[in-house]
Amino acid sequence: MIRLYSFRRCPYAMRARMGLHISGVDYEHREILLRDKPSQMLEVSPKGTVPVLILQDGTVIDESFDIMLWALKQNDPENWLTHTPLDTIRPLIETITTDFKHHLDRYKYASRYNEGDTRASIDLSHREQACNILQTFEDTLSASPFLMGEKACLADYAIFPFIRQFSNVEREWWDSKPFPYIHAWLENFLASEIFKAIMKKHPIWAPEP
To answer: N or C: which end of the chain has fewer CB within 10 A?
Structure first.
């Protein structure tokens, strides 16, 4: 049986679960707590981040986008892979997982990076930098309903979990922010059946005694 170590609210784990869900791949879901990572996961992926996918032959895939690609190569009923060439969408996705995520983490978890900040602190300078990146996405979505045209593709599904995380830091502020096209795009995915399916709660996994 294929096994997936996951954490429900992690955007990386979300996109891996979406790839697995849309492909129809059968797997065992192992929900974990990030503060109490199971030794079984750390043995196969010492870096200690989710998601971690273990294939039936023992192959370990511990990068979320690679899990999406693997799953879609098994079955791609919605043509996420074939809609737009990977070379076209990779730079867009990497902008979110590098530059945008850098600012998102420092905005959301300011106390981890700024000595003296409290746990509840946010960093508005990094919020502004993240918004500058989002403006390019707003411009794109003003011309089409999805990032690559008239139909959602791999880029949209690989990116929106990170925008969701950003939107939840200061909900009232986000709701008032003039990003109408991003708001509509994001709400479309949050209301989708696939997102509802992959966000179902699972009990915390524990090995059998």
So the answer is: C
